[in-house]
Amino acid sequence: MKSERRGFTLIELLVVIAIIALLIGILLPALGAARKKARMAVCMSNMKQFGTATGTYAGENDDRIFSYTWRKGDSLSEWNDLNNAEYDIEAAANQAADILRRTTGDPTIKPKAPLTDGGGGWIPHVLFSHLVLQDYLGQRLPEPMTACPEDRQLRIWQRAPKPRDVRDNTPGTLRDGAATKVAYSSSYQVVPASYDWYQSEGLKNISYAEKRISQAPQSHRWYYVPYAARLGGVRFTRVAFPGMKVQMHDSHDRHSNSNQYYFGVTTFQARQPLLFFDSSVRVLATADSNLGWNPAAPNGVGPPRTRYDPKPYEPPTSTGEVDEVVDLNYRYTRGGLQGLDYGGDEVNTGQKR
What we know:
This protein has 353 residues and is of the alpha+beta class.
């Protein structure tokens, strides 16, 4: 006798397809969440490596926190245009450019863009402090470790570290003088107190206020760097509460929300991994930190604030508006390295509230 073969009916096929679609709908969000957790773990690992390198650098450099060491008048570069700076901030920019030229083999990298391109002073401490750790991190340039896995824009720059036309709104474009350098920048920023001597060493002397670095209230991209500023040379022993003082943070919260928010957005509870001076890395909300201070007005009431007005290559505001006022809390800690950000109230180090 012939055996009778029977296939699936249309209804049975539709049921199977519906079950598969249901399972995919259940699994995809879980997979997405798992991927985000994995990227956060990589981000935290990156910061942990910076913490380890900080300790190694301090141990080999008279207990100093890593920073640029060239000073005005120094003539230490093989390139004449990177010597004899008039101010310390210019000397630091020259040192950063020297590191980039020697490491990348690109002698065209300049410490600042021509004024005709809207350029001006370059403050390498903000996004390029890690360059002085080349020997301690074994970095190649561009170095993936310096970019948060969720910082898609920096990763685009890292894949193509060449100048671009900068006057359009294409993602990844910058002024020509900065376009080459930006690929070698970092998502992670060290707090200014780690390199601003007058912010951490000269606390009680109010006259030092006019010599301290501060962030301009009109834009998050602008900083006041007085010509009299003393940069670098801050000792690790100045850190009074290593496990409570933030050393490094990302410019944006890239992990806890569907959108990326500037780290100072407290309304939407921006939170992110933070590196502390004891080399621990913890995920904390900006709103839970102490309010901080304005180094240029040390007796004022915090928090220090700036206006986040993103360029086309930066994440948008949390409000959808052109700009928004954001807090800077742990970026400018009252008392500098002698203060604390989490786990206790602000310490009175001589600046009254």
